[in-house]
Each structure stands twice: as C-alpha cells, then as structure tokens.
Design brief:
Mean pLDDT: 84
Number of strands: 9
Strand order of the largest sheet: 4-3-2-1-5
Structural class: alpha+beta
Largest sheet: 5 strands, antiparallel
Number of helices: 9
CATH topology of the largest domain: Alpha-Beta Plaits
Helix content: 40-55%
Shape: elongated
CATH architecture of the largest domain: 2-Layer Sandwich
Order of helices and strands: HHHHHHEEEEHEEHEEHE
Radius of gyration: 31 Å
Amino acid sequence: MQEFINSAVDLCTQAGGKIVLALVVFIVGRIVINKVMAFIGKGKALAKIDPTAASFFKNAMRTALYVILVVSIISILGVPMASVVAVIASCGVAVGLALQGALGNLAGGIMLLIFRPFAVGDYIIGAGEEGVVKEIGIFYTTLLTTDNKRVTIPNSALTGGNVTDVTAESTRRVDLTFNVAGSVPINEAARVMKGVMEVNDKVLQTPEPFAAPVCGIPGGLQYTVRAWCATEDYWDVYFALMQDIPTALGEHNIGGPSSPVSISK
C-alpha cells in the first residue's frame, strides 16, 4: 500500500511539475511573442515594404510563433508527437470540414497578397460593403466605412466576387444629369453647363468637360454632364457642380420641363 502511495505521489509530482513548467512556458512565450512582434513592427525593413505585404507578413509571423509555442507546450506535457499526429489524422475529415471556410480565407489572403487587386488605404466596393482598406489579414480584410464603422470581410468573399477599387487611378469622372425644358436651345443649355465646369479649378480641362442632351423626357431633354478631376477631389467637384449648375441655369432663365430645374444622378 505504501508503495502504491509513493508511486502516486511521484506521478502527481511529475505531472504537476510538467503542468507548472508548461504554464510558465506559455506565459513567457506570450511575452516573447509580443516583444518580437513589437520589434518587427518597429523595424526599418517593414517600413520599406508595401503596407499590404507588411500587414500580411506580421499576421503570418504571429500565427507561426503561436503554433511553435503550442507544439512546445504539448512536448513539455509529455504527449508523444506521434500520438498527436495520429489523433489529427483520425479526425482529418472532421477537421477539414470545420476548417474549410478558414482555409478558403487563408488561400484568399495569399491570393490578395500575390495578385494585389487593391492595397491598404484604397477605397473599395466588394462583398456588399465599401470603405477604406485598413488591414489585409491572413483570414479577413478590414474596411473603415465613410461613417466610421469597422467592417470585417472574409478574404474568400473578396477573391470570389467582383471588387471595385475606387481610388486605384489618379483621376475620376463625375457624371451628373439635369432635366431642361425643351424650349431652351440645346447650345445655350450646354454652354451654361460647360461654363460652370470651366471655371471650377478642380475640374480638369483635359479631357474636356462634356455637356449634351442624351434623351428626351416629357416636356424637355435630359442632359448629361461629365467632368474629370483628381480622385481625391471627386466629392468636392460632385457637390460643387450639383450646386453651381442649377444656380447658373436659373440665372440664365433656363428652367426644367416643369420649373424649377429637376436634378437626378
């Protein structure tokens, strides 16, 4: 009986020691990982890399370090790695089904990094959401909407659907439509609209601003106005033209099919 008790005490002592050591390794490991990630984040090497690739690299590095930490803890606890591999293999089908979405997101993150349909800082529209790309992670991409909401989108949703990069090019075109009475000479209405665009210093004159009727409506014509501008000036030009063109039409006594002037976009 005494021998059994001594054996039990020894077993508990060994197991307790392993558990304590594993706990210490876990705590120290987390501290080391945080220090390493902080050092990498402040490193000059990452500062020279594109923000999209840098963000992806840091997320991948953090995941790899935690995998190493978990394997180390399993080893300290005395669990044979062969047994761990056997358990994973026996549960392979279930694990594969459970991780199907995560693996798809991981593959999507790698594809986003390689093919670069957009980058951190771009304004995109995709997966039913739109906003400025704040981070492209291993599994998810984070957007910040215009009303300051943070949206997290699975990478697989972005690689498997259409994505519009609004800010990819240096210039954009503002398209507006205005309804004008049919009694107004076409040249006169178009001249007034183009005159507004020509005096706006944020409207590019090459390509030339455009204003012309595109279709008939009851009692008048619908005019399309097109103005090119720098991408960062898009909304300034949009709202300026929405205000200035109707004002100019009114000053020239140019009304809509049923005055006042009707505006739509």
